[in-house]
Amino acid sequence: MEEHWKYILSVSLLSIQRMPDVAESRWRIDELAHRAGVTVDTIRYYAREGLLAAPERSGRHKLYGSAHLERLGRIRDLQGQRFSLAAIRALLNADRPGIEDLLVSQGHSYTLEDLISRSGLDAGLIARLRDIGLLAEPEALGHEVYDDRDLALLHAVVELREIGMTEDILVELGAIYVRHFRALQADVHAMLAGDGRDWDHDELVAIQRRLTANSQRMIPAVDRVLNYVHQRTIQRLTLEAVRTAQETRTGVGGVRLDDAPS
Q: Are 106 and 150 in contact (CB under 8 A)?
């Protein structure tokens, strides 16, 4: 009896597998708008901006499918993360799920005037920090406003000023960090692109996809690595500077004690 039921079940499964696929749903633009929770004008705007594929034609009608509905949902999600339309277009075309986590905004939104007011810094100093790229422009990150990380940077600048750094030193220090981190990131991108080494292409593509898909775990891990290298480098260089200062009668920063103001 048991074998009999197994036979019936297997025949049933095979018959299900052989059934023709149910035709995918198709909707007119007003029906799609209702399902997606947007207006018809919004759909037409997204189509003009290259965010939405053209509909299929069926006689006199233009019909949209589940791919359009899914794309509208993704656009809404990305807009909720405060990405600009230009950034949304790039992220949608990249076909790298999870890559938006590398660019997502954090916390509250601020205009430049908000940052100046909340940080307590002079607008001229903030302008200099923007000029050297230390305070990143939102547009370069796919956003239209600043966020909590930008405000935190300016609070760090305030603290550095309070402990003795001058404005010129802060700007020069920021320029050094920006310049070298850009060079560092260029090297990383070149490595992951396969430059300078005979990488297996398929393996490299698979690695890139895994990294972007797991960016929420990757970013904190990379932050810990970079912070470790930074801290250990500072410790090592400080100890070397102390030893050099003892041997050459200079200050830890390298300024000769004889030249120091009394």
A: no
Residue 80 CA to residue 101 CA, distance in Å, equals 13
Contact 49, 89 (CB under 8 A): yes
Q: 3-class SS at 126?
A: helix
- Hey, how many other C-beta atoms are within 10 angstroms of the C-beta on 145? 16
- Enumerate the domain spans of the chain: 2-80
pLDDT value of residue 200: 85
Residue ranges in the chain whose pLDDT is less than 50: 1-22, 262
Running DSSP on this structure, what letter comes out for residue 114? Answer: H
- 138: DSSP letter: G
Decide if 150 contacts 115 (C-beta within 8 A).
yes
CATH architecture of 2-80: Orthogonal Bundle (1.10)
Q: What is the pLDDT of residue 147?
A: 92
Q: What predicted TM-score, i.e. pTM, was given to this entire model?
A: 0.66
* CA dist., res. 243 & res. 143, Å (int): 47
Dist. CA 184–CA 140, nearest whole Å: 18
**pLDDT at residue 9, rounded to an integer:** 38
